[in-house]
Structure formats: C-alpha cells, structure tokens
Backbone:
C-alpha cells in the first residue's frame, strides 16, 4: 500500500529524505476516481523514476460556478484499491491546505488558455495553472505526467513550466481508450446507458478526419463540417466546439500544412461534457 | 571576486553542487547599481547562509511604458567593485534568457498589488511577481532578502511565496538611510543638487508622524494632512501618495489601533520618484 500524505510539511520531509538518497521522483497529478488513463501515467512514471507520487485533489479553482465541482466523483478508498502497490506515495490534501484563508494569487498563461475549453470554461485554465504550480513547488518532482486527452492543458502547463523556470520535465502520455474508442475519463461515470452507447462517436469522428487528411483533404472548414455531421448522427450529442489549431501558434488554421496540427472537440451528452482530440499530420 | 553566472544552466549546475555539499543558499535579488541598502541585505544573507548569490537584472516587465527602464542606471563593473568579495556568485542574465521569445505567463497577487505604488505604476507588481518567481525557481535559495523601503513589494512577495508554496524564507531588512535620512535607492543618482537637498524631507515627515502618534494623535486624516504640509514646505516636492494602511488587511484605516500599520509615501522631485515608509504603532 502507498503511504498517504496529507500536509505540505509531511510532503516536504518525505521529499527531503528521498532526495538525500539521490532518488528521482515522478509526479502524477490527478483529481482521483482513477481509471486506466491514470494508470498508464503511473506506469510511465515508474519506468522513468525511482519513486512515484500521485496527488489526488479535486481542485476547486479550476471549476466554474455552474460546473460539477460538488458532484465530481470522489472515492479515496476506491482509488487506493485501484492503485494497490503501483505508487509509493499519495498526496491527498484538503482544500484548506491548498487554499488557506487569504489565498490571493492568480496565474494566467495567456495564449493556451484562450480558445477551445477556455471559451466554455472561463477561468478553468487559471485554476489548472495555479494548482499545478503549487503541486510542483510542494513535491519538486524530476518529471510530471499528464494525459494528452487534455492536450490544451498539457500545452499550457508546458508553457507555464518553461516561463516560470520550474525545474521539471513535463511528459505528455497517449490517450487511453475503452475498447469501443471512448477516451477514458472520470466523468464517463456520469453517462447514462444511452449516452454511453453514443459517446464513441467522438473517436470515430476523429478517425474519419484522420482518414480524410490521409486522402488529401486539407481544408479545415470541410473537415470540421464532416466531423460535425458524423457527431450529429448521434441524437444525444450536443457539440460545444470542434476546432483545428496549430499547436505552436495556437491559431485556427485554414489548411493543414506540415507541422503539429491538433483536431480537438468537446461534446455534451446530457449534462456530461466530454473532450477528445487527435494530432493530425499531412 | 564572485563568480559570474550568465545562463540558467550555469546556475542550475552551480546550485546542484552547492546543495550536494549540504550548504545553505541566500539570494539577494537586485537591479544593480548597488548601494549600502543592498550591502545590508548581503551582510544579512552572509550571516544566515553558507553561500550568498546576488542577482543583477533590470527587469523590463516591472517598468511601465513611460517609466525609466532605458535610463535606469546599469554598471556591472561598478557593482562588482562595490561587491568585492562579499558574495559568492552574481547571476546576471540577459533579457532574452529571462524572457525568451514566446514568453506568455502572468502572475497577479491581487490585494498587495492594489493601492499605493500599484496605482501610479499599473502592472509594476505583476512584473515583480513574475521575475521573483523565476529567480526563486532558478536559484532555489533557502532564504531570500528584500529591503523594506519597498514594503509593498515585500508584503506582495511574502504572499506570493505562501500562495505558490515556494520553499523559501523571505526576509525583510530595515531601510538603510544616508546620514541626512534619505532612504538609499539606485534612483537617488537621478536627483539634481537642489532636489537632493530637499529629498530628506520625506524621512522628516515620517518621523513627524511617528511623534504625533506617540503623542496620541490617531486620526489618519489629520496625520496625513500634517505629513502633506511638511513635505510641501519643499518647493520641488510633488506628492504622488501618502497613505496609512493596515499591513494585513491592506485597507486604508481611519484611526490607528493596535496592529501593524504602515505609513507609506511616494513623492516626485523633478523626474525622480522616491518612495519611503515607516511602520507606526500606537
């Protein structure tokens, strides 16, 4: 069983001990309700580092006022049983430890917090930036792992780490999917049976786009139109956004050229908002 | 002579060596053009730590568009001769090393960046917050030293360090003054002879306020009126602000009660804007 750490002092003491024996540390920041996506990050961390620490903290500052902070699934017992012996430490602080009374600082990573999820979730990425900065400063890992399902988040955090000179390597890990293609997410438990059956259309639509590009269709307006039509074949799907952006400039592009191009989408099924994405190359 | 460090990689290697021998590190962040105020910070750091590092960097992000970034006095040769053997390392990065192309992150410490210098220097404290965060992440000192002449800055940085869980102790050091009471500042070199002669009125006015409080005058409006009148006896003085604030709540107060109360002021002499302050107790 991993050792549980609740306070920042406990973490600092633990880290000091680990570092004094010259061991390397990998951090996997999570909001709990662990699934195979998280496990893949943990496996990668265990491969790369001597010690793996997972944080389990449902971060209030990254939820909007009308979002699912209260209902977000929390079950530490379940998480510990999923983890079994796979990590060395679990840091699971209270809200008051992370945000004591008088907390007063904001971090804004401008470019990558605009567009896509930044539009429908204003303030979300500022909350992500602050909590990740805090976790990195508390745990001071050598490497930190993020799932590429949240590609916008991963790009934002990579920029944040570079800009603030945080001495850590941010590693993005491939999206892990259910057998029918649905990207794993703690929020998938919200889906009704009918919604769950229709949700794999997101991955099918992303694959369609990939095939279209492979066949020589580079006009993004047309690609987005066909992806939209595909998703709309599912009556319960309500599209939030479908966008194609250059991953460096973070600008919407008209034609797919060489370079790193991201097709990203967010679609609601009932009250559940799912996101998914794919990197597409000419 | 101290060793000069120009790049972040050089600093990280140096720090790794120092820490591997379990030595403690004190950082004194400066914008150069060193005076006895800086030297007092260095002396304190040398008392407290095995190794003292000073950074010399005129930080562009803390200057407004119409401020004195271009004319701010820079003379590394002079600084090194002032330093002599008093520090172990001088980190003097270029602008491009601190802010490479694509830099995109902002840090805002809300409460302490409002009021006082935050009004006449909009954006100033965001620039201070970002550069201090970067320096602390690059150098990872045990302790970091600030002069209390910039009390608002010191309070803001203390809040920032707490909120971001940066593992460092921020130490505020007493204001160092010329023999006639003028607080030491790199900007004092801007003053003409006449301005220089009139500038000590700031300290006289602060002392007057202290005496008034000691004599039982607690009404801040009246105290500020008398401080204003005192400063206005100098024809070249142009008051920017004179304020009395509670150091915790950062609110202007009507009557001086128990607790930490700051009398802070900014006054222009010609083009030169000077600041000074005093903690006053009932």
Residues:
């Amino acid at each position: 069983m991993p050792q549980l750490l609740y306070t920042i002092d406990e973490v600092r003491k633990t880290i000091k001990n680990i570092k004094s024996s010259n061991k390397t540390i990998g951090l996997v920041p999570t909001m709990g309700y662990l699934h195979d996506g998280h496990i893949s990050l943990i496996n990668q961390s265990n491969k790369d580092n001597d010690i793996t620490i997972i944080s389990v903290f449902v971060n209030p500052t990254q939820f909007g006022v009308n979002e699912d902070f209260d209902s977000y699934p929390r079950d530490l017992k379940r998480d510990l049983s999923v983890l079994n012996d796979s990590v060395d430490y679990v840091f699971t602080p209270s809200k008051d430890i992370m945000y004591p009374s008088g907390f007063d600082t904001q971090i804004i990573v401008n470019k990558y917090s605009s567009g896509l999820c930044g539009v429908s979730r204003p303030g979300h990425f500022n909350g992500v930036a602050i909590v990740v900065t805090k976790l990195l400063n508390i745990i001071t890992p050598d490497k930190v792992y993020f799932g590429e399902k949240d590609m916008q988040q991963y790009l934002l955090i990579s920029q944040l780490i570079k800009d603030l000179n945080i001495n850590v390597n941010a590693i993005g890990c491939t999206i892990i999917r259910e057998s029918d293609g649905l990207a794993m997410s703690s929020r998938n438990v919200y889906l009704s049976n009918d919604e769950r059956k229709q949700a794999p259309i997101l991955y099918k639509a992303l694959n369609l786009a990939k095939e279209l590009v492979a066949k020589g269709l580079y006009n993004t307006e047309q690609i987005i139109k066909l992806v939209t039509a595909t998703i709309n074949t599912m009556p319960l799907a309500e599209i939030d956004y479908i966008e194609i952006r250059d991953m460096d400039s973070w600008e919407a592009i008209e034609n797919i050229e060489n370079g790193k191009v991201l097709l990203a989408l967010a679609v609601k099924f009932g009250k559940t908002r799912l996101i998914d994405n794919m990197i597409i190359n000419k």
User: Anything to note?
Assistant: The interface with chain A takes residues 8, 12, 102-112, 129-130, 133-134, 137-138, 140, 159-160, 163-167 of chain B (CB under 8 Å).
